[in-house]
């Protein structure tokens, strides 16, 4: 997905630190890694594509974040929410999800 590639390219060091923190704190990553998560968000927010996804997909992303907060030890149960967010983000970027339709704005 284009937005993830942009974030990785622009915010690689922040993503790396956040990923290491999450891996090291499987039961408490949502608390232990919160500041690192904010640093990734702040870095990524500088890009227009990421800002557009945050605006257009705020509802589905909020549902995904709520699911993670409610299930910090079983994030795999948030699959439906992450799929909904990714579908939304793909529609914003113009990427076509598998089995999906083209974005009418492009």
Automatic annotation (TrEMBL):
<dbReference type="GO" id="GO:0045333">
    <property type="term" value="P:cellular respiration"/>
</dbReference>
<dbReference type="InterPro" id="IPR031731">
    <property type="entry name" value="CX9C"/>
</dbReference>
<dbReference type="GO" id="GO:0005758">
    <property type="term" value="C:mitochondrial intermembrane space"/>
</dbReference>
<protein>
    <submittedName>
        <fullName>Coiled-coil-helix-coiled-coil-helix domain containing 5</fullName>
    </submittedName>
</protein>
<dbReference type="Pfam" id="PF16860">
    <property type="entry name" value="CX9C"/>
</dbReference>
<dbReference type="InterPro" id="IPR052848">
    <property type="entry name" value="CHCH_domain-containing_protein"/>
</dbReference>
<feature type="domain" description="IMS import disulfide relay-system CHCH-CHCH-like Cx9C">
    <location>
        <begin position="4"/>
        <end position="48"/>
    </location>
</feature>
């Amino acid at each position: 997905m284009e937005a993830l590639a942009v974030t990785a390219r622009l915010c690689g060091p922040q993503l790396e630190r956040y990923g290491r923190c999450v891996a090291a704190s499987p039961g408490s990553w949502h608390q232990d890694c919160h500041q690192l998560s904010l640093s990734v968000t702040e870095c990524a927010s500088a890009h227009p594509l990421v800002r557009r996804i945050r605006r257009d997909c705020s509802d589905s992303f909020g549902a995904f974040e709520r699911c993670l907060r409610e299930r910090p030890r079983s994030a795999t149960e948030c699959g439906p929410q992450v799929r909904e967010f990714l579908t939304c983000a793909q529609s914003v970027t113009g990427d076509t999800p598998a089995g999906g339709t083209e974005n009418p704005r492009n």
